[in-house]
Design a protein that fits this description.
heterodimer; A: 197 residues; mainly alpha; Cytochrome Bc1 Complex, Chain D, domain 2; 10 helices; disordered N terminus; B: 423 residues; mainly beta; Neuraminidase; six-stranded mixed sheet; four-stranded antiparallel sheet
């Protein structure tokens, strides 16, 4: 499925979208606005390769990322292109829609690296991650949910914060916390967070 | 008076001068009195100090109190219209929206020709707000700066402070659509962001006051920070004006005396109600204001007093309250407010982030003698707090307009308000 191809034919996007809307859902999400259709090609129920799920993130967190992509403060070739033409109202509509979707299910596979998980738990305690992200890492006003996300993505996010290539809200809080992380810290944290129930 | 070397090679000189080993409170379950040591002699510390300003000193009860994320987008005109209706003011005063769509608006400065320059926080922008046929137009004139919170205007030039650089943009009002490259006039400043967001205040002689916050909540600061400096942007010369200052993001020159006054944010995590934030006056240079040994003039730090008593330090003019976060301040030099407001101080309080019930987020009025005696404080404008733990806006600076009205910048709602008196 050419889910990564944003420049692909519009019809492909619409077909994909129709498929995802046809799927039954537990909760009742808002109807996808027109402006969300291109997003769903990669961030829909079937995720594109290397693409994180955005369903169920906080409204303001989603908006913050889109604003940062739009201004170029957060850099990603595809996302900067996607966000470039968005109006403030588009961004509000996208935040509202994607935050209304249920959060992704926890990983279902058995944890094959329980030692790494334990190490990650210690790292999370050492860096006091739960103070802002909550004991279940489902987030708070100031900090997004970091559970139920793919391991590769959490590692990338932390690496980007550490390199100061991704802006952090809350007075630059994540830039500072990540500044003290070693490669090993990032590896263990990403694994621990990804396998949280 | 202690002199600091000028801009040329200033960073290296500043860092070389720092040999202090930091001591930070070790948060241990038993509340041990031992101090944790950090080594500030290496580059790694200065690039990424430990995130102690918001994390590490909190108690179990305070867990979960985190710096709030500001709204991604500035408030819409409809939201602002609704918001200003809720602002409480003394009788005879009114508030309106001066300009909207000013993301993360911070310090304001007037150009000689009536341009209002506005810094920002994470938005990385500096704005110029101009009047076009009675309509306020917001132009983003600078982008991509590192937390350019402080702006000032002098001799046709805009000055911007962005964490570790003071930049000058000459003849700016004639070049709003094509601003010149910024000229670095001073950069002997650490590059960390924490408490590194700054405020600029020119005095009459053309020197500019700049605060240097410590990169943490509480600790023995390296000798080059926790101070206010006065910088001559023409030569890059600098001198220390005040020591023992925690996080100051506001100040003004008293029109009555020429003295510098400044606001100061006190340490966190002691409790919801202590210590109090402060209003200070520089009666003479290089006084010590107490940090980290003594807070609010009369409260020794439980760990960092280290044998000092509060009587050794310069007390504040006024205790402003705990976690109210006083930032920008100005003496009222206009003439359209009632006569008793002349030379009063207006302080923009940004409001709490780690207090269980937010307070602040208002404009305070302080009546005080030129010597700092007989201070009286009252709330002038309030109503930006929603419930216990949310904001509709967060005032962070004030400035007096030519017509005597008071402008207020708000980095949460991304707007500038105008408070006027209608006889």
């Amino acid at each position: 499925m050419p889910a990564r191809n944003f420049s692909g034919p519009v019809s492909a996007t619409i077909v994909l979208c129709a498929i995802s809307l046809a799927s039954p859902r537990a909760a009742e999400p808002a109807e996808a606005p027109e402006v969300a259709q291109p997003c769903l090609a990669c961030h829909g129920e079937v995720l594109g390769e290397g693409v994180p799920p955005i369903a169920g993130h906080f409204n303001n967190y989603i908006q913050l990322q889109l604003v940062a992509f739009r201004s170029g403060r957060r850099q990603n070739e595809i996302m900067q292109g996607m966000a470039a033409g968005l109006s403030d109202n588009d961004i509000r509509a996208l935040g509202k829609y994607f935050s209304s979707l249920p959060i992704p299910a926890a990983a279902t596979q058995a944890d094959e690296q329980p030692d790494l998980t334990k190490a990650g738990q210690r790292t999370a305690a050492q860096f006091r991650c739960a103070n802002c992200h909550g004991d279940k890492f489902l987030g708070s006003q100031g900090a997004p949910r970091v559970a139920h996300l793919p391991e590769f993505y959490v590692a990338k996010a932390l690496t980007d914060y550490r390199a100061n290539t991704r802006p952090s809200s809350g007075g630059g809080a994540m830039t500072e916390v990540a500044g003290g992380l070693s490669d090993d810290n990032i590896k263990t944290l990403a694994h621990y967070l990804a396998v949280l129930p | 008076m202690k002199r600091i070397t000028g801009t040329k090679g200033g960073r290296a000189a500043g860092l070389a001068g720092v040999t202090a080993v930091l001591a930070l409170a070790l948060l241990s379950p038993a509340g041990a009195e031992e101090l944790k040591h950090y080594d500030s002699t290496g580059k790694a510390f200065w690039k990424n100090p430990p995130p102690d300003w918001f994390l590490g000193d909190e108690t179990a009860q305070q867990k979960g109190l985190a710096p709030p994320s500001n709204p991604a987008l500035p408030a819409s005109d409809e939201e602002l219209a609704d918001l200003v209706k809720k602002i409480k003011l003394p009788p005879g005063f009114t508030i309106s929206v001066y300009a909207s769509q000013v993301p993360e608006a911070r310090q304001m400065a007037w150009g000689d020709n009536g341009t209002l320059f506005v810094g920002s926080f994470g938005a990385t922008n500096v704005y110029a707000i101009v009047d076009e046929g009675g309509k306020k137009v917001v132009k983003t004139i600078l982008k991509g700066l590192n937390m350019p919170t402080g702006v000032a205007f002098r001799d046709g030039a805009l000055y911007v402070v962005a964490i570790d650089k003071i930049l000058r943009y000459d003849n700016i009002e004639s070049n709003l659509d094509h601003p010149p490259e910024g000229v670095v006039v001073y950069d002997d400043m650490p590059s960390y962001a924490a408490h590194g967001w700054k405020y600029l205040t020119f005095d009459k002689t053309g020197w500019v006051y700049v605060p240097f916050g410590p990169p943490f909540n509480i600790g023995n600061p390296p000798s080059s920070v926790s101070q206010v400096r006065r910088v001559d942007p023409k030569t890059g010369a600098a001198e220390i004006v005040a020591l023992g200052v925690r996080n100051s993001v506001g100040g003004d020159i008293d029109p009555r005396s020429g003295k510098y006054w400044f606001t100061e944010n006190a340490r966190d995590w002691m409790s919801d109600d202590i210590p109090s934030d402060k209003l200070n006056i520089v009666s003479k240079v290089v006084q010590h204001y107490g940090y980290p040994y003594c807070h609010q003039g009369d409260l020794p730090d439980p760990k960092f007093a280290q044998g000092h008593s509060c009587s050794e330090f310069t007390p504040p003019v006024l205790k402003l309250g705990a976690h109210v976060a006083p930032l920008g301040m100005k003496f009222y030099t206009g003439s359209s407010f009632p006569a008793e407001y002349k030379n009063n101080i207006f302080i923009a309080e940004h409001g709490s982030w780690n207090r269980h019930k937010y307070q602040g987020a208002r404009i305070e009025r302080v009546v005080v003698d030129p010597e700092g005696k007989h201070p009286k404080q009252e709330t002038f404008a309030s109503g930006w707090i929603k419930g216990d733990h949310d904001y509709s806006g967060r005032p962070d600076d004030v400035i007096v307009a030519k017509d005597g009205s008071l402008l207020v910048s708000d980095d949460w709602a991304g707007a500038i308000y105008r408070i006027a008196y209608n006889k």
